[in-house]
Amino acid sequence: MREQILFDPLLPVWLVGVLAVFAGVVLVIAALRGLSGWWLRGLVAAILLVAVLNPSIQRENREALSDLLLVLVDNSASQRISDRPDQTAAAFAEVRAKAAALPNTEVKVVTFEEAEQDGGTPIFSALVAALAELPQSRIAGIIAITDGRAHDIPTEEALATFALPAPFQTVLTGREEDWDRRFSVSNAPAFGIIGEPVLLTLKVEDQGNIPAAVGDMAELIVSIDGGAPESYQVPVGEELEVPLVLNHAGMNVVQFEVPTAEGELTDRNNSAVLQINGVRDRLRVLLVSGEPHPGERTWRNLLKSDSSVDLVHFTILRPPNKQDGVPVSELSLIAFPTRELFLEKIDDFDLIIFDRYKRRGILPSVYLDNVRDYALRGGAVLVAAGPDFASVDSLFYSSLSEVLPGAPTSRLIEEEFLPRVSELGQMHPVTEGLQAGETPDWGRWLRMVEVAPFGGQTILTGANDAPLLMLDRVGEGRIALLASDHAWLWHRGFDGGGPQLELLRRLAHWMMKEPELEEEGLWATAIGQEMTITRRTLEPDAAETLPPVTLTTPSGEEIALSLSQARPGRFEARYSSDELGLYRLTQGEHSAVVALGPTAPREFIETVASAEALEPLSSQNRGGSFRAEEGVPDFRFVREGRPAAGTNWAGFWQREAFLTTDITVHPFAPAWLVLLLASALTLWGWLREGRR
Q1: In sequence order, what DSSP letters do the residues of 223-282 get, joined into one string?
Q2: Is 79 in contact with 266 (CB distance < 8 Å)?
């Protein structure tokens, strides 16, 4: 209970003051004149002045409130490495025990994890949210059990306007001897030209209390597209500019990994995956045409319409057996460099197309031998066959027969037919999805050469279900045989036209080994925290025989994922996780890597415990930081403004907050008593003065 005297004047205060002065003057005059009852008159004046001030007694019934000790417990990803979870649990138990020994103190606990979208450890956000829900006048202190790696601490200018209501103390997990090795990529382009080096900026750095035995060199393992890894020795602590040559178009997945060193905190920041899109500076195409026909211009216009295509067109406008008396000097202004193209620079071309070409002795057999060798060495050859392919002058009767997937039967089919995607073609990436339904909605062709396949894959069929488009892998290269010269009808819109551009684009990309057009492949794409795993295969019974995909998480856990058929030849599975980092996928001989979020999340950029980031908060009310491995310091109360941390103690403010449950107000004295007392003193003074 608490009592206090309140005044509620019956007259204005200034008037009461005037009356008090007047009474004082009268008393002084009475005393100077020697009146014996002047002091009694003074008492009467004092009683009346007090009565005018109307005093009362206020009594408050108060209930004492406990002081609040706010404990922030960091459960972010960096707090889950090494033995920090055990340290955190032990420190929290000790904080509770020592807080219980403080008089009238209650513990409020706030637990937080890493922020979404790789936001790091949100200590400050958790602190502000907790303070908004608690009465500031009751907070005696704040304790953060953390490794100190906070990622949302405001700038000094912003903190200047933020005042903590009590001392901030840090109990730091981790150990004095901790150290960690980290691999980082500070500069990597999103695109690169195939065959030309792209420059990457890499760095291997050590943090913390680095053992002398670690040395200043580290092993760096590099793997491209899941291929055989290569190992290099690189200096630690130095930025390295490394040139990387992209070998194919499309997405090139480059994986870097530094082996885990003995004693380092974690290997979560020892690897990185880069996805660099390989683009061709120029697509170099050699188009070899036979005698002129309507489709020749279509091929030329198609290739010339793409500004990224360098086209060299070798065409025969006048056969050598034509005798029309025109002088040889007037037939050509310059000699065509056939030797240079077909012998010396043939490997400079990305694609060679034979369009209705037949053997006429213009290209010597050695040139065609070189084209065959070009395909076996990794080149791409497309043969668009016309009627001459069924004749004795057919290209098949050259050395190219060793790489072609089918042989002409010498029968030329000249009738209307509708090209159809074969059962295999519905699964093949070149023709997958081109045909909707059983009956194609594109135009007819009018002629094709009957071909007897002896290898490769038939993905389009023509008249009588005969092979129309055949693909094959030969040596290191690829070859395609289109058994018709009427693809141009689609381009011209005959009978409604057809998907010629899309078909030829996919065909060219398949021949140039684009990864997304491989018949057998495993890959994954990630959006946010979810990945889509795709397996493409041409195996007819894959739905029953395809084994699950083994997914290895960044923490090393292996998960078996079953795939479901999305469409013929394509199987998919979806997986979502809150764990950021690098995931590895394996299924038989196929493998892939994908990253959810960054490969090394923000939580693992710096893993060695440090209280430096929290120093602006600790210094506000003269708090401190203590290592959990040395034990939680003793708790004591200190006065506001005094140091709140010492060698082995942490100080808090005793707030002595209370809740008023009842208030009563009573007059200082009854009115009748004041009147009686004033009257008695007045009468006494009159009688005393009257006797004299």
Answers
A1: EETT---EEEEEETTSEEEEEEE--SSEEEEEEEE-PPPTT-S-STTSEEEEEEEEE-S-
A2: no
Residue 294's φ and ψ, nearest 5 degrees, are -60, -35
CA-nearest of 486, 518, 467, 498 to 415 is 486
pLDDT (mean) for 307-314: 80
Give CA–CA dist 499/491, Å, rounded. 8
Question: pLDDT digit string (tens) for 386-442?
Answer: 898 999 889 999 999 999 999 999 999 999 999 999 999 999 999 998 887 788 889
Closest CA to 523 of 509, 508, 534: 534
For 113, the token pair is 């994890």
Instruction: Answer with the residue of higher pLDDT: 445 or 313.
Output: 445
Residue-wise pLDDT for 638-688, tens only, equals 999 899 999 899 999 998 877 666 677 777 777 777 677 767 767 776 666
The Cα–Cα gap between 161 and 170 comes to 22
Q: Torsion angle of alpha carbons 116, 118, 119, 122, nearest 10°?
A: 70
Q: How many CB atoms lie within 10 A of CB 313?
A: 16
Find out whether 373 and 346 touch, Cβ atoms under 8 Å: no
Identify whether the C-beta of residue 256 lies closer than 8 Å to the C-beta of residue 222: yes
Q: Provide φ and ψ at 569, rounded to 5°.
A: 85, -5
Q: What is the largest CA-CA distance in the chain?
A: 173
Q: Which amino acid is at 455?
A: G
Contact 68, 138 (CB under 8 A): yes
Cα–Cα distance measured from residue 494 to residue 295, given in angstroms and rounded to the nearest whole number: 13
Q: Is the pLDDT of residue 622 over 80?
A: yes
* Contact of 456 with 403, CB cutoff 8 Å: no
Phi, psi of 651 (to 5 degrees): -105, 150
Taking the CB of residue 203, how many other CB atoms lie within 10 A of it? 16
Q: Which residues contact 418 (CB under 8 A, 6 or more apart)?
A: 439, 440, 442, 444, 445
Q: Average pLDDT, whole number, for the chain? A: 86
Nearest-angstrom CA–CA distance, 92 and 143: 10
Mean pLDDT of 311-338: 65
For the sheet with 67-74, list strands across it: 105-112, 67-74, 139-146, 168-172, 625-627
Q: How far apart are the first and last CA of the chain?
A: 52
pLDDT tens-place string over residues 504-542: 888 888 888 877 788 888 888 888 788 999 999 988 888
Cβ contact 656:105 at 8 Å: no
**Residue 470: both structure tokens together:** 């055949």
Residue with tokens 């398949």: 510
Six-digit token string for 421: 């995607």
Structural tokens at position 33: 């004149």
